[in-house]
Structures are given as structure tokens and as C-alpha cells.
Amino acid sequence: MSDEAHSSRPGAAGEPSNRPIEPGELGGYERARKALEEARAAARAAGKSVGRGRASPVRRTPRGAQTRKRWSGSGPDARDPQPFGRLVGGLAKDRGWQEKIGEGTLFGMWDNIVGADIAAHAKPIELRDNVLHVQAESTAWATQLRYVQSQILAKIAAAVGDGVVKSLRISGPKGPSWRKGERHVRGRGPRDTYG
User: Fold this and answer.
1) Would residue 36 count as lying in a domain?
2) 8 A C-beta contact, residue 142 and residue 172
3) The CATH number of the domain where 164 resides is what?
4) 169 and 131 Cβ atoms separated by less than 8 Å
């Protein structure tokens, strides 16, 4: 814009205008400045501080009555960096992921939770409705695991938390299959072969 255009507008070069300004005469920038000036004048009339970014004057507190320390001190503080595990644990609790994380921990760290001896002879199959299905490599190991079932549950609860596994269902190895090949036809069913 030229200097003549600036000087022809009312209020240019700091000169106050006495006549009312038509909305079409002002550009976007001038409208915003005028609205700001009106807001500042209204704030001054209400007795508020203008230009400091606050709605009211700053209140000073006596020197001895400070409400907040400016340093953290030697103890832990909420502003201190938090361990990552605690943050992830809080996130999992808030979002309801604890059961899935417990299940993953149980299957991933099975040998550390129950011990190398039991883990060598039994493996977890699935966790459904807080019941852990465990398959032993032999019927003898399945019987032995049933005897120490309460100890295994205590170890699992200590590792992944209470309530993730409430009971164990221990089974031996699956019986042999008499089916041969990929395709088969269902037979006649059970029949009396002894007589």
C-alpha cells in the first residue's frame, strides 16, 4: 500500500478519529487492533491490570509464607523421573491389560516360574476362564503335578499376580490315533468284539 492510502484512513499515524468508522472501511488487521483497544479500555475501566497477561493484579505473598518449594529435595517427588516398569504397569492397569500381560508372562517365562525340572516335563497349553491347561509328557508326570498343584499355583500367583490363574487342569499325553493318512471315513462306531 502507498503512504497516501495509510494517511487517508481514519486513525492512521496515531491520529484519533472523531467520526464513527464503517465496518467496510477497516481491513482485518485494523479491525483486530480496534477490538483489542476496546477490550483494553473496558478492562482499565473495570480496574484490571492491562498488558501483563493476567486478569487481575499480581498478588504478592509474604516472604516466609511461600506455598511451594522451588527444589525437589533429597526424597522422591512426583516430578522426578519414574521407572519405566511402573509407568507401563500403571498404563496396563488403566487400560485393563493386566490379564493379557499376565498370560503372556506365564507362557513366556514358564520355565522360570515353575522351575526347570517341571518345565522339562510339562508345558502350558492354554489359559481359558482363569483355568490353566497343562500337558505332561507322561501319565506319571501328570500324577506328580497333581500332587504339587497348590505349590505351582502359589508360584504362578507370585510371578503374574493373583486371579490370573485360579486352577490347573493337568492332563497326560494324548492317546495314539488309529487314523491313517489324510483322508478317512468314519467307521461303524464302537461294537462288541468280545463275544
Assistant:
1) no
2) yes
3) 3.30.300.180
4) yes
C-alpha cell at 183: 483322508
Q: Is 18 among the domain residues?
A: no
pLDDT tens column, 143-155: 999 999 999 999 9
> Between β-strands 167-171 and 131-136, what pairing exists: parallel, antiparallel or unpaired?
parallel
Residue 120 counted as domain residue: yes
Q: How many CA atoms lie within 13 A of 52 on its CB side?
A: 10
Find the domain containing 157 and state its range. Answer: 98-171
Q: How far is CA 4 from the centre of its chain?
A: 62
Counting the structural domains of the chain, the total is 1
Tell me: the pLDDT tens digits for 21-80? 665 666 778 888 888 889 888 888 888 777 655 555 555 665 555 566 566 667 777 788
